[in-house]
Amino acid sequence: MLYSSRPLFYPDIFQEAGLPLWLRPFEVLVTSSYTALIETIPDTASIHSIKSRYPNITSLRDFFNAKYKENSPSFKLAQRNFVESMAGYSLVCYLLQIKDRHNGNLLLDEEGHIIHIDFGFMLSNSPGGVNFESAPFKLTRELLEVMDSDAEGVPSEFFDYFKGFLTCRKHAERIILLVEMLQVRIQLSIGASEQIFYMSQTACPVCMILGFNLIEV
Questions:
Q1: Is the domain covering 2-210 a CATH 3.40.50.720 domain?
Q2: What CA–CA distance (Å, rounded) separates 105 from 96?
Q3: Separation of alpha carbons 135 and 62, rounded Å
Q4: Sheet of strand 106-109, all strands in order from the earlier edge strand to the far edge
Q5: Chain center to CA of 179
């Protein structure tokens, strides 16, 4: 069976609204109940590997400056690609509580897009069964620097792209319908015991954020 990792119609929702938010779907070929083949994403490198490969580069902004030549047309295009993808993935991570967003799970492609991989921890599932990640999505000082902003909140025209959240709310029924499908029999490992997770308003922020109620099965 062939599935796409396209997360809950988000790319289609953004496209219908005319928003330039960018996500990179990839295909998954299911081979059994426990195994699958995941499409390789070519021409990418993780932020972790980029920093390891170029020890003289101390930040992601330095990498963009060196690769695309700061203030050049190619730099401006790569910067915009970065922000459009950053905004799209931030919304997805916020609504679905995608966790474990370390630099090994964040890729950069040749055009400057950021691409998230490894969605093993989402909703109420956390590494080690301990929910220690309080941030709704990853937005560090280093990522802000690429977008011409900083931790003090220096204004940037690029932040307008985060208005895509309002578009998601308009399509709440489409999103929550698919989220409800996940509640039927999602097995989560908490410590040494296996539990069946039933989504509720308390456990899943999707319904609270989008203003809907989920019915427990």
A1: no
A2: 16
A3: 25
A4: 44-46, 106-109, 114-116
A5: 16
The C-alpha atoms of residue 15 and residue 13 are separated, in whole angstroms, by: 5
Amino acid at 115: I
β-sheet with 36-38: strand ranges across: 2-4, 27-30, 36-38
Its pTM stands at 0.78
Which tokens in the block code for residue 112? 């400057």
Distance CA 90, CA 213 (A): 23
Q: Is 186 exposed, middle or buried (0-12, 13-18, 19+ CB in 10 A)?
A: middle
- Hunting for tokens 């219908």 — which residue is that? 16
DSSP string, 56-123: T--SHHHHHHHHHTTTSHHHHHHHHHHHHHHHHHHHHHHHHT-----GGGEEEETTS-EEE----S-T
Alpha-carbon gap, residue 211 to 206, rounded angstroms: 8
Show the low-confidence residues of the chain (pLDDT under 50): 1-2, 8, 185, 187-203, 214-217
Q: How many CA atoms lie within 13 A of 149 on its CB side?
A: 17
Quick: pLDDT tens for 53-69.
988 888 999 999 999 99
